[in-house]
Every structure is written in C-alpha cells, then in structure tokens.
Design a protein that fits this description.
By secondary structure, this protein is mostly beta strands. The strands form three sheets. A seven-stranded parallel β-sheet has the order 1-4-7-10-13-16-18, with no helix packed on it. A six-stranded parallel β-sheet has the order 3-6-9-12-15-17, with no helix packed on it. The chain is built from one helix and 18 strands.
Length: 209
Amino acid sequence: HTEGVRITVLGNTFGIPDDTGSTSNVGVSIRARDVTVRGNTFNGTAISKPILCWGPGATIEGNTFRRGWYNAVENGGYNADVDNTKWHNNTFIDFSGPALVLRTGTGHEVVDNRFINCGQSTSGSQQKACVNIEGLSASGTVKFRGNKMGKASNDYSVYTSTLTAEQVELDGNVMSGYGRCSIGLNRSLGATVDLGRLYARKNGVSGSV
C-alpha cells in the first residue's frame, strides 16, 4: 500500500514449481516507503520479476534469487521518485535478463552482492548485463561497491546507455573475465582511455587499456 511505511518481509520462500504450468509476474511488489525485504529465497523462472520496487527507501538485503527474469526499480505512478533503494548482500543466480534493472530515482546502492550467470539474453532495452541502468532522475546517482560481477554468458557487468561516468560510482568490485584490463562496462561509461583506466584501478584490474 502506498501509505504504508517500514514494512518488513522476512525469512520467506517464494516459488512456483516449474512443472505446474503456472506463472506469476511479480514475487513481491513494493509500493510503500522504507520497506525491508530480508533473508528470503525466490525460486524458479515462473516468477519473472522477484522484486518490483515502486517505493522509495527500500532495503533488499540477504536474499537469494534463483532463475528469475529481472528485479526492477521503477516509477509505477505511486510515488514521485523512487530514490535511495539499497541492494545489499544478495545472491542472484541464473537470471535470463539482468539481475537488476534501475529505471528511476537517485541515491541507489548496490553493495556486496554476488551475481552468478546473470544477463543471459537481451530483451528490448535490456542488455546482457548483471545490472542494466535504463535511466535515473536528473543528475541521479548509483553506487556499486564490493560486488562480485564476473563474466559468464553476459557481455557487461554494468550497462547504461544514458548516464555519465559522474553518476555511477564503481569501487572495490570484482569484475573479472571480460578481457584484458576490462571490467565489463559499455562504451558510455568507459568513453575514454583515461576513464577506463580509472575504473579498472578501482576495481582491481591493472595495466594499459
């Protein structure tokens, strides 16, 4: 409910067995402010969007997500801006799309998460990435720190077609397997050699670009 605040979803298992033929578009839909989703397990491709966040200030932490399509932060018309969401210490496994899609807001944090074989395919504006940033608020920011975002079948660790490097902070992540001195950024975030080197140094990759 959009008038709710500080709701906690704790320690549940969400899933639909694949052999039932049933599907659910969304696992948990967040419309209230300051919601916490902690210590839950989301199973199966039948839940295409495990978390759909339309509420500001949400904290998504310590959850395990297996075989979804993507989680999303977007403006569903319930709040003016969906700002300051925190995605901390989650594990995302075998996502057909990006494990997380950011479409609005500012002040988001993606910290200490593990992405395993996410971004297996493209769909519309979504790229083969662990995280796809489709848009933020004007001058919006997002911080990535301490994530493990190694390459599997995906092409990118973080992809955005619209943001400047000043809006995206990348520091202390493990982004391995994308090629020599590469951490899997698309061109808009690594538009110059110097910028590519800066990102690489901050995320444990050294050498010339």
